[in-house]
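User: Here's a chain of 279 residues. Predict its fold as tokens.
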Amino acid sequence: MTKGRGRIRTALLFLLPLALFYGVFYVYSFAYVGVASFLDTDITLRDAEFVGLANSELLLTHDRFYTAIFNTLAFAAVAILAALTIGFFLAVVLSTKMRGHQFFYAVFFLPALMPMSLVASVFAVMLASRFGTVNEILRFVGLDELTQRWLGDPTLAWISVAMIFVYVIGLPIMYYTADLATINISLLEAAVVDGAGPWPMFRLILFPLTKAARRTIILATLFGAFRAFEVVYLSTGGGPSGRTEIAGTYLYNFSTSGVNVGYVASAAVVVLLIALGIS
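Assistant: Prediction complete.
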């Protein structure tokens, strides 16, 4: 009994630093935001006025907030669809050890290893209306009529941001590759002997057997969209006219505009509840 208690104390001692870190940076932060959501105040919480659910009621009447939530989920849906189709196909092809597969692994993994702030900044420079790489190439080859305001037109800006989410497809490929490595090769050999073609192999064998990786990819991509502040902020800033705004940029833009911090805290609580509800 004494030995068992000693192990418990040792385990708690190792967990204490993490528990303190979690308590300071997570529990305290959540409590701060939760309390502030009921107040009309600034960031210091001084001279705060209790307003109850008034901040939440105001938030739910703001169309821009609904646009931000819709865009967050829509960008996540685009990224998930690309991961479950293009990512799955590439993972299967590369797992066949085709010639040069290591080079292609590096090509697809590299964007996922780069900071998203850098990826978004590069895309913003490439898609700039004036002197952007894409438009300059079009002008150079004589296709001036195809140049566009890629980040200035609402529809094109939305598509451009969605492509950034799709661009980071390396992690889904990695998840699929790890799962494919655990598949019993005899199942595939039996399917070939029975005359199964490539499409039935994909649809009826490989896709169902990678269910665990698929679940991980969906959740990771979905929650990644709620944390993709830098992707939108450094590419379009949420514009034009809020067309590409997501939850993160919505919160940031209002928190730096000098409005009631309680309103921003209320929005943060609602976004957190939405994310938890989806999970």
